[in-house]
User: Fold this.
Amino acid sequence: MSISLKVNGKTQEVDADPGTPLLWVIRDDLKMTGTKFGCGVASCGACTVHLNGEPVRACQTYIDDVEGAEITTIEAMSEDKIGAALQQAWVELDVVQCGYCQSGQIMSAAGLLRENPTPSATEIDDYMYGNACRCATYQRIRAGIQRAAEILEA
Amino acid sequence: MNVNTSRRGFLKGAAATGAVLVVGLRPDGALAASGNPTMLTPFVQIGSDGSVTAIIKHFEMGQGPATGLSTLIAEEMGLSMDQIGYDFAPSNPQIYNNTLFGPMQGTGGSTAMANSYLQYRQAGAAARDMLLQAAAQAWGADVSDLSFADGMISGAGKSAPLGDFVEAAAALEAPAEPRLKDPSEFRLIGNPDVRRLDSAAKGNGTAMFAMDIQRPNQMIAMIARPEQQRATAVSVDASGAEGIKGFISAGVLPNKAGVAVFAESTWAAMQARNAISVEWDTSNAETRSSDQIEAEIRAALEAEPTYNVNDADVMAVRAAIDGADTVVEETFYFPLLAHAPMEPLNCTIEQTEDGGILMHDGCQIPTLPHGALAEIFGVPFEKVQIRTVLAGGSFGRRATPQADYQVEAAMAFTLTDRSRPVHLVWSREDDLRSGYYRPAFGHKVRVGLDGSGNIVGWEHRVAGQSIMKGTPFEAFAVQNGIDHSSVEGTVDSPYQIPMASFGLTDTEKATSTLWWRAVGHTHTAYVMEVMMDMAAVAVGIDPVDFRLSYLNGDGPDQQRKAAVLQLAAEKANWGNAPAGRSQGIAVHKSFNSYVAEVVEISGTAEDGIKIEKVTCAVDCGVAVNPDVIKAQMEGAIGYGIGHNMRDKITLTEGVVDQFNFPDYEPLRISDIQEIEVHIVPSAEPPTGVGEPGTPPAAPALANAIAAASNLRIATLPMNDNGASFV
Assistant:
């Protein structure tokens, strides 16, 4: 079945069953591999993308529910003011280790900064709770979000 | 293990073979046979455009060797970090041998920097000297009049980029012993401002992990595995999957270990795997439960150990303890643990045009799958290529002596006509439920102390499932029947404890076991440091002072361990915790590095503990990339604390009880409020940083909990045994 998806501003036809998770359409059909598979049950956040600007877990989002919606992935985040600030902060602080979860971390962090431009450490912890990092880069993620907030304020 | 610093002559030999084997690694991973003259040594590739690429022989799972080994080359070549790139080495154990555990190319035991430090500096220095010599010849100048900085060669009134001399330099012989910089000349080594080379790509989605490999026309394969280890697949009925869009076929693996399900996409493979039905032969399947594993280990601790590890006079030790004024005794139990790297295991296998085999993998020990693939496909070793790409974590899991997942991919590939590449993908459930766990271990320790608070006897029994026995690593790691990885961190502790005996009993494996970040130290450090704490408290001596009294010898081992202990205590303001907070401390040597950690908590075990701050001090010799070292300590602390707070793998009649992250809950961002890392300045050779931060973390937390609540946690995880966390 053909479904029309708008990903990073570009509308594309995808031939997939309506119950297919968005994650696998993005990765396997659209060949955009920045969005990661970590658990498949929405408990690690590695697959986080934006749906109309809001972070969602792509592994538990089905394509027939998102037809016509604005889907944004990590590949477009350097064009986004908040995304670019986060990426700059991530490099300045060397947040990453293995890096596999970091697309999802940045997508969630962008959602946080959009609704709260100056989050406290506790607010960051509450918002980012669902994004697991097995390398435990959490302290730098926290600092990276606060640094990005500074960059955006300047 | 000693760091072999005598690498005399290796450059000459390596360069001679390297030019053939390494030159011309194309971006798609295929080796191009070309007469490319740009390879001066196998560790650095220089293009005539002046581009410099460090060839990294260790895989990158986040621990930083891509940056670290590049730093060594850039340092000796006088480059800035933005003038160097990196690429992962092809599988070639002759050239890219790990000098600390070879003959084998591989990463593990926190050896990447220790075994590369001189090699890569020498490679960079040789390249620099050859380029200078070529420039001197071109200009008719004396080499001593030329200088090399930021990629430019200058002198004798001239200046030109290094690329101008690459071809001439390639015709020169590599110097046997190029001059290495004196540490006083270092600009990059030890510089805290040097950034990781992989940060930008990992933050914008362009970094290529093994999971991101999408070869033209590839199939996805997932494996239906038995619920119990050692069960075998008899047959498969795939009719249930036939309506699934993208499903291709299913077949029993030649080794009967499971059923391969092939599909056009990952989602189709997942659905099809759920839809097929497999007949399993469970006649030899594992049926024990983790309760039985635990009972067996606890029983072994009550019996005389099989091995007297340090040839102690056990009766004399026992008599000393029996006659002591105070006796402190505890029995510990550590459950099975999964590694759960963020990127589920996967790799891609294909046949090359010349009938060889090419594998794309975040490959930790390439030599093991390399040999296995050659054997399975009956091709010469030289016709197997392993292209190493970024790995989304490992913690030891991507290295198994059996090359488990790479062999699985190969087995699946043999079911096909090999016309299409096969990308094997594991799910998180596969990852948590398929074995290769940190083995379960138990310890029983009795410590006797005299009226002045001095230890007069220490009887220590260890029981658990050997990691190394029955693997190719047995010859290296097992001596006189004793698997050193079962007792490392106890019998070889720098503590100078009088009248100590260490006994070991192997218990039968009910599941497959594997090294897990810091291996034996994951349990031995906990036991050593909780026992030291219990002993100190029992005799009313400050835990730091108590430990220092067993580290007051003249040996560097004692001095370095004492120094990190004192530094961590000082930086944490030990003994002066703010109101409402409690501190615990632990110090441990592993992988030739020394790490001390102070954990500061608020709350109590009953009402909920919050980990407010961890203060860490590390001595890992020369700190090549200080910020990478800090990051490794931060991550290793999280790894040690997270699992011991709340994780375990359990079996019910041989079947793993856990499924996915909801019941193997990872450390979360809110679990640790702050980590502060201090590095001891050192001129000693660099030692490990990937693992040594893990061992002291959990015992420091346990000691803080004991200080807050008088609760001694001896059976892990903590939240099953009296502690709750908020």
